Amino acid sequence: MLNREVKAICPICCKPVAAKIYAEKENVILEKSCKEHGVIKDLLSTSVELFNDRMSLLDHARPNKCSTEKCSEGIFKCKDHIARKSPLAFIEITTRCNMNCPVCYADAASKGKDMPFEDVKRIIDVIQKEDPQTHIILIGGEPTIHPEFFGILDKISREHLMKRTFIATNAIKLADETFCAKVRKAGIKKFFLGFDGTDREACKEIRGSYIAYDSLRKALVNIRKQGKAWIILSITAVRNINVEDIPKALDFALDNSDIVKRVMISPEVYCGRINEKEDLSKNRLTGDCIEVYLRKELNIKVVAVPLSMFFVLINPLKSMGFLKEDSWMGAVPSPICGSMGLIWKDKAGKYHSIIDFLVKDADKNVYKLGRRLKAYSENLAAGRSRFRGNIFPKILWNIFVFTYFLPKYFFILFSYLNKKSLLKIASEFIKARFNIKKFKKDFFGKRIELFYLLGSDRYNFIWDKMPYCLTHHYRVHPRTQEIIKIPGCFVFSFREELEK
Predict the structure, then answer these.
(1) DSSP count for the chain of H helices, then E strands
(2) Which residues pair with 167 in a beta bridge?
(3) Rounded to whole angstroms, how far apart are CA atoms 126 and 114?
C-alpha cells in the first residue's frame, strides 16, 4: 500500500508543513496539512503502478537534512545535498517580455527589468570557472530583447562556452531573417523554441495571440537557411486545450527533424500569472498523464522513462571505476521529475520507441531491469569498500571487476534485452559499414527525442525532491551581490520571495 510521509510547503503561506503521499483508486495524491489553511490535495500521478515503479529507482522519500532555512540562498551550497554540478545552467537575463501569455510561469511583462550586463558577465565567469561542461540556457522573460543581448553572446563566446549554449525564446525576433542571421553569426546554433502544437486556435488560447504560432514557423525557415542547428520545441501542455494535439505536434517535429532534435513537454504549472487553482486532485496534468495518453495514442508500451533510469544504467560502471563519478549523469535525478525517450516512424507510418525496441515486454520489464541494476550497484559499492588500501587491494579489485563484476553487469542487461532487436541493430550497423551517422539515418530515418519536464509550484512542491534537482538557476544575491545557484522548482515556487 502506498503511504509515504514527505516534507512540503503550504501553497498559501509557504511555511514548511507535513505531507503524505497515498493512493486513491488509480491516482497518487499529495496531501498537505497546514494548521492555518487546512488540508490541500494535489495530484502526483494517474497511475499508482507507474508511480511506484518510478520511485523504486530512487526512493527519495527517505528523510534528508535539507531545510528551507539552509537552502533558500542557494541549494547547491548545502553540503547535505547530493547533486553538485548540473547539466543545465539557466540565466534569467530579463523579466521583460514582448508577449503577455496567460500561462507564463514567470509573470513576465513589459514592466519587468533587465539583469545588468555586468552581473550577467560575472555569472558567466563563475560558470566558466566552476562548471564549464554545463549547458547554458538564456531565459527570460524574452532574452532576445535584452539591450545587451549580443554583448552577452560575445562574452559567452570569448569564454569558450558557446558550443553548449541555448536561447529559450518565443521566436518573435527570430522570425526576422536579419536578426536570425545575426544570432547565428554570434555563434548560437541551439534553441529552445516555444511551440504549443499545430492547432492555431489552441495556441492562441494558451499564448493570448497568434504571433507566437506564426513566428515559430517563420523562425524555423530562417534558422534552416543558416545551416545546421539543434532545436528543442517546447510545449506547455494545458488540459482540455492542446493535449490531444500532441501526436500531431510530434508529426510536425519529425517533419522538421533535420533541425528539430527534441520535443519537450511541460505540463502547466500554477505559479506566475496563474497562481491559484482549485480541485487540483482532479485537474492537475502530470507527466504520467502525458505518458499514459501517448502510450495509448501512439500504440507504444513505454514511450519515456525517468532520467533516474539512465543514472541506474550507468552507475555500476562508475562503481567499477570505468566512469568518473562526476561524468555523464553525475547528479542523481529525481524519478518524478524529468523523463526521456526516443521515438521514430517507420515507412508505414507507425510510431516506435527505442525503449520498446530494446527491452522485451518493456511495460513489464524496464523497471525490473532498473531495480536489478540499482541493487547490483549497491552491492558493487559495498564490495569496493573492502578493497581500499595500497596497490595490492586495487590490483585484486580490478581482477574481480574484469573476471566477475563486469560480465555479470552485461549478463543482467542482456537478460532483459530483446535479442532479435540487438541482432537487427548489429546487421544494420554492418550494412552501414560501421558508420554511425549512416546507421542512424538508415535505421531510424526521421527520429525525435521526447522529454517530459515536470516543474513544481507551491501546490505540488516537495522538499524531498530538492537534493536531486538537475538545474542551476544563477542569480545575484540582492544584499551580498554574491552569485547564487538555485534549483528550478525552487524558483517556480518561491519567485515572489526571491524577487523580494
Answers:
(1) 18, 16
(2) 138, 191
(3) 19
